[in-house]
């Protein structure tokens, strides 16, 4: 029987693993009035979001047959050893692969005992029919008892552990192990108590969204003396077999009902990108205003005796860039004309970077090279004497204008006072 179960588990695991699929990721983008929301959902069947405590509960109710594995039971006819079995449990899945349950097993146990063994429990006066000759002189009688066994088990859903979570999978293979308390009571008020250890194999078949059919093979072991017969005894010159424990094996068929929210959601991440369009519009208006002022300055005629120069002037740069944009070149040409019109004055050309993006070293590089590029354009392209320009840079700085980091990515040209 044990070899059959091990082979069954191995074949089932390989079959389930053969249908596994590759994981993938699906990303969706939602545009909103304030920006966009990117949602990335993992299709990896091994990654799920765990649920709240009251989710993924279940109850089981099973019935079937069981046999007691005592010291002398092997001599009894197998059919006479079969007793009815009732199982009930309530449990919870913490992940698709790991769960727990608290169970009740009980009803009847049947066995046999030797008449010379006066301490035996569950006695009857009915002689046992033997399937093979008892190697001794004593007479064997039937035992009959009732029992209950409460136990806690840890469940392992091998289908989900090996092949990934699939809420609609028809078949799931679920072994379990556990520990419990065994109590029996028979004739003459004889009672027994013992710690019990359990193992089983649940074959679960999905019937509907909340219902499953269970075929369960289970076994238990407990103290050797629960039936009042201790192995290794010697009575009337007859030596008993030396067994360390008694046991019980059974097979049941029943139903599972799943309670509350079931299943697990796929793992996902959400990123929100906000765009303050009001602020963008305001900045665009400021830029247009500056452009209009520059156009007015471009059309003026300059007289060294009557200064009409407006400073400071801001040259803006894209994030992490040092090259001067074409739209800024148009304005720099006008600035260069004003500077050349006042040869007795000097002008600061100072580079800046936004301290909230990039490292300190990177921001120092950006600020210095932005200033150098503006200096080169003023001197080499537009003919401003280098002696009129004082070159400097400040690295990464706080927001200088309107609490806007974009305006800190700049070079500012101002008159040296």
Summarize the SSE layout with pairings.
Blueprint: H1 2-18, E1 25-32, E2 35-42, E3 48-49, E4 57-69, H2 78-81, E5 83-93, E6 98-114, E7 123-127, E8 140-156, H3 158-163, E9 171-185, E10 191-206, E11 211-223, E12 234-235, E13 238-239, E14 245-259, E15 265-266, E16 268-274, H4 277-298, E17 313-316, H5 326-340, E18 347-354, H6 360-381, E19 389-397, E20 410-415
Count structural domains: 2
CATH architecture of the largest domain: Beta Barrel
User: What fold name stands as the CATH topology of the largest domain?
Assistant: Porin
| Broad CATH class of the largest domain | Mainly Beta
Strand tally, please? 20
Estimated radius of gyration: 43 Å
Q: Number of helical runs?
A: 6
**Major sheet: order of its strands?**
4-5-6-8-9-10-11-14
Biggest sheet features:
8 strands, antiparallel, barrel
Quaternary organisation of the protein chains: single chain
Average pLDDT score = 81
The residue ranges in which pLDDT falls below 50 over 5 or more consecutive positions are 14-23, 233-239, 304-308
Helix/strand-derived category reads alpha+beta
The portion of residues forming beta strands comes to: 35-45%
Overall geometry: rod-shaped
Describe the structure.
It is rod-shaped and about 135 Å long. Strands 4-5-6-8-9-10-11-14 form an eight-stranded antiparallel beta barrel. Strands 17-20-18-19 form a four-stranded mixed sheet. A three-stranded antiparallel sheet has the order 1-2-16, with no helix packed on it. It is 21% helix and 43% strand. The N and C termini lie far apart (100 Å). It is built from six helices and 20 strands. A hairpin with a 5-residue loop joins strand 9 (171-185) and strand 10 (191-206). With 417 residues, the chain is of the alpha+beta class. The chain has two domains: 2-268, Porin, CATH 2.40.160.20; 276-415, 60s Ribosomal Protein L30, Chain: A. The longest helix is centred in the last third of the chain and has 22 residues, at 277-298.
């Amino acid at each position: 029987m044990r070899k059959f179960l091990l082979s069954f588990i191995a074949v089932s695991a390989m079959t389930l693993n053969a249908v596994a699929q590759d994981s993938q990721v699906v990303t969706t983008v939602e545009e909103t009035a304030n920006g966009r929301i990117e949602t990335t959902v993992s299709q990896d069947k091994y990654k799920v979001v765990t649920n709240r405590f009251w989710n993924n509960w279940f109850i089981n109710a099973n019935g079937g047959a069981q046999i007691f594995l005592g010291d002398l039971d092997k001599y009894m006819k197998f059919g006479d050893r079969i007793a009815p079995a009732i199982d009930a449990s309530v449990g919870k899945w913490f992940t698709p692969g790991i769960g727990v349950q608290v169970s009740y097993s009980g009803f009847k146990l049947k066995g046999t005992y030797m008449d010379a063994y006066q301490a035996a429990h569950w006695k009857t006066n009915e002689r046992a029919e033997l399937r093979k000759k008892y190697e001794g002189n004593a007479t064997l009688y039937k035992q009959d008892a009732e029992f209950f066994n409460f136990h806690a088990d840890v469940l392992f859903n091998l289908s989900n552990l090996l092949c990934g979570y699939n809420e609609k999978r028809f078949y799931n293979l679920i072994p379990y192990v556990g520990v419990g308390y065994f109590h029996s009571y028979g004739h003459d008020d004889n009672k027994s108590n013992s710690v019990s250890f359990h193992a089983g194999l649940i074959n679960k078949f999905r019937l509907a969204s909340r219902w499953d059919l269970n075929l369960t093979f289970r076994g238990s072991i407990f103290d050797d003396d629960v039936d009042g017969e201790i192995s290794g005894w010697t009575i009337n010159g007859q030596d008993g077999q030396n067994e360390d424990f008694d046991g019980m094996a059974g097979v049941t068929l029943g139903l599972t009902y799943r309670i509350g929210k079931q299943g697990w959601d796929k793992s996902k991440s959400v990123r929100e990108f906000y765009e303050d369009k009001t602020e963008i519009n305001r900045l665009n208006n400021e830029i247009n205003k500056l452009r209009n002022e520059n156009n007015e300055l471009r059309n003026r005629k300059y007289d060294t005796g009557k200064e009409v120069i407006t400073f400071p002037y801001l040259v803006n740069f894209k994030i992490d860039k040092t090259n001067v944009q074409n739209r800024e070149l148009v304005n720099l040409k006008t600035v260069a004309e004003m500077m050349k019109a006042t040869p007795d004055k000097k002008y600061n050309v100072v580079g800046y970077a936004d301290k909230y993006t990039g490292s300190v070293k990177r921001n120092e590089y950006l600020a210095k090279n932005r200033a150098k590029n503006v200096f080169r354009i003023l001197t080499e392209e537009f003919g401003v004497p280098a002696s009129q320009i004082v070159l400097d840079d400040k690295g990464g700085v706080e927001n200088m204008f309107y609490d806007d980091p974009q305006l800190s990515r700049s070079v500012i040209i101002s008159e040296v006072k």
